[in-house]
Amino acid sequence: MFEYFPGNYVWNLGVVATLNSGGLIDEVDRACRPIKEAAQRGEDAGTADFLRAWTELTDQLEAQAEEAAKAGHTRTAKQLYARATNYLCQAERMQSASAPGRLDTYRRVLELQEKAFVTVTRVEVPYEGTTLPAYFSSAGSRAPVMIMWNGLDSTKEHMYSSRHWAELAARGISCLMVDCPGSGEALRLQGLTARVDTEAWATACVDYLETRDDVDPARIGLVGWSLGGYFAPRAAAFEKRLALVVAWGANHDWGAVQRRRLQREGERPVPHYWEHVRWVWGQDDLDEFIEFAADVHLDGVVEKITVPFLVCHGENDRQIPLEYAHRSYDQATASPNRKLRIFTAAEGGAEHIGIDHLSHTSVYVADWVADTFRTT
Question: Average pLDDT of 218-243?
Fold first, then answer.
């Protein structure tokens, strides 16, 4: 993985995610060069410097976008807004849950993202008396559709900037990018926290999609990356209207990962980690959270998956052990078509969710989904 900040995995993860989601190396370098010293102080220290530097870049791009829009250069403006969203969203992700101004920063992300859209639209998925905010990419009438879920710290804006939805659209597949409870807008602006029984979110998403005339209700799939590698297989085990499921990062035993992280084994995805995970799950006490997290696993669950199941994992994933990919695959014995794909360092995509070569992993997933939908 490209490591702009030597020795700081968490900051490097943000940089690589940005570059593999439409960021430009010159813009990223101009933002990061002034904060190289701050990165040496550790993953938590200096995150305010990170936000300040990347906000300055965002300001610059937004001003350029406004000028382009005034001149009637709509395509140029939308490209600039898209990159501005990408940069600011990654900087927001790095802040602590209690950081001053974090919500205002995220609201700005939402505003910039809306200005970047060309074919994607904002939708609301009804869920337990409220809604789950989402973006929808339509591939046309009666098209198959993939529901896409976040991990621990990503948002629907990260999913948009990854352009996985565009790869699906090129194959005639729509995409519903959802901020599930515990992530993105659902957490930040609505206070919805994550839960173990993620089939509740799947049911809400499928119910919504079945109301749309442009969706084929017999071909609704689900993909989740990072912690979504737990969320999605768990949901598919119990929501039987799903036609297929993808674990983009095999998060088979997330509770065990938390115990490892207490011992400083493996890498963590965000600064201020323990504050972040308690925020996501709505837990106040760390000891109680660790006890609660023990239930976040797929043992005895993936055996109930009865649809095609793809497990993708990087051989050098420094967050989630590779053995978990084998465990999810080996236990999914009721799946009529299960596939395990390990991405190697030689080809790229070997890091967590293939973030070091995101497009390579994305294309593989999209091809598998398209092939599988054709046979269902």
Answer: 98
